[in-house]
């Protein structure tokens, strides 16, 4: 459910969100490109995560400018929440998921007798096609996991967004 005062989030609601999925593209192409390019895709996705973390911390700092008592605590909770959420929702879980999808396709290719299954591009194509299918479920799962753990333990509730 979206808060009616919610004004959008440049890192989660716009095209910048796709930078968080750069590593999934790298994973999809893993069988065709040098490993250094796969790792570069992780650097780009991690840069996105860090940028969003800094952005959320700055927004919280500005919001808390008159509340010196809780300012540092709220900024730390906001940045920690963003760093954890983005790390899992944008890099770790989707990267592992696409890696395993592609590895499964490659495993099946080894044992297939069908010529169509032998294409070097098959695992990449299936990996790329899978990316848009996994985004929303992973985002929702990250929210649910954060709500059941970090947010529950700390009492911190970030601005309700489109993932809820």
UniProtKB/TrEMBL annotation:
Domain of life here? Eukaryota
A GO cellular component term found in this entry reads: mitochondrion
Residues of the signal sequence?
none
A Pfam match is MTP18
What biological-process GO terms show up in the record?
mitochondrial fission
Recorded hits in PANTHER family, A to Z, give: MITOCHONDRIAL FISSION PROCESS PROTEIN 1
Q: To which protein family does this belong? A: Belongs to the MTFP1 family.
Q: What is this protein called?
A: Mitochondrial fission process protein 1
